[in-house]
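Preliminary data (for renewal application), iron/sulfur cluster complex.
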Amino acid sequence: MDKPGLAGEGIPVAVVACPDYMPQNVSRALRRALDLVGGLPAFVPPGSRVLVKPNLLQAVPPERAVCTHPVVTGEVVRSLTDEGCSVTVADSPGGGTRYTERNMERVYRVCGYAHLPEETGCSLNHDCRYREITVPGGSVCTRFPLIYPYFQADSIVSVSKAKTHVLTLVTGATKNLFGLLPGLEKPLFHSRFPDPAVFSDMLLDLLLAVRPALHIVDAIVVMEGDGPMSGSPRPLGAIVVSPSALAADIVLCRLMGIDPARVPYLARAAARGLVALDGSGIDLRGDPVSMLRGEDFRIPGTYASEKSGFSIPLVFRVVHRLGKVYQLRPVVDGSRCSGCGRCTVACPSNAAALVHGRARIDPRKCIRCYCCHEMCEQGAIRLERGVVGALIHAIAGEKRHEE
Ligand code: SF4
Ligand code: SF4
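Predicted structure:
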């Protein structure tokens, strides 16, 4: 089972180079990484029922680097069926997508998953019911609605996609678990937990509640820039495997050249004593991170100017609280908006609405969760500062140079 990871425990994290999505290359790299952490049976009992949880954020093709590549998920399934496991592949797409059988069919087809049952012997989940679990020890959240396959499996194997993220800076193993919440529950959670630190605590509560057995991260082609939906694909050439989501994500940060202290959920995990940000509790195995690390990784605009997600100058925090004028805000590009309405469904605060067939956002209602940006398949939602925010940014930027 998952060890969220205390410093000094020697938690294994395997990093193995994988140049591309050729099935033989992915198979070889994955099996080597699994061997390096102690072998699949050390974490998943042979013959058991396993929920394989990829990141299927949206119905977009694999080359966009939005979702876990089907070749990676397929090879993970093969590794499990080789151990006699019965495997269900399941995820709930992002908050703008209703969690229905019809929508899942489209996601599986467009994301390249439709052939997996025939090729690997797994089942693709079509049961879109969900149930709640109670988490008595949760720090900020004590109840989670979870998709049905969670209740039918003996263990979870997370197969996440490495990306930048406008809200959490990085998404990998830990954030992938948010997809266990059914579709439209996600915007509700964004509404309940609008503060990045509290949202992070909620993610950690979820991780500790569901405790996946193993985390596999598809970092072969990752996303940089304004992820998780509107960034750019970038080859990184690695597969990361660990029984600890937090340890895997810290190593992922190193591969992406991002300071883990800037990632809100990792900073909160460190504050809660779940992990050491300097990696002192991690037993790194496999290929050298220095060989694979990406230089000059483009981070999201929401983080580009902050020195640290949790050490930002006090003025920033005050301004954040006083009117959100500093934070980047979503702005609709009417020339690209198709009027599909996905952003209005995703918006947890009813700030986004369709007016004359185009999206319009009410900045007074907007809580800056960026769900709309995440959901827009047309790239019609930009994130930018208003006049006052830009002014504060200019002043604060000057100040940081003086430090
Ligand atoms: S902004 Fe994007 S998601 Fe919203 S209606 Fe327009 S195209 Fe659809
Ligand atoms: S309009 Fe604001 S509150 Fe609504 S989804 Fe977009 S960022 Fe979130």
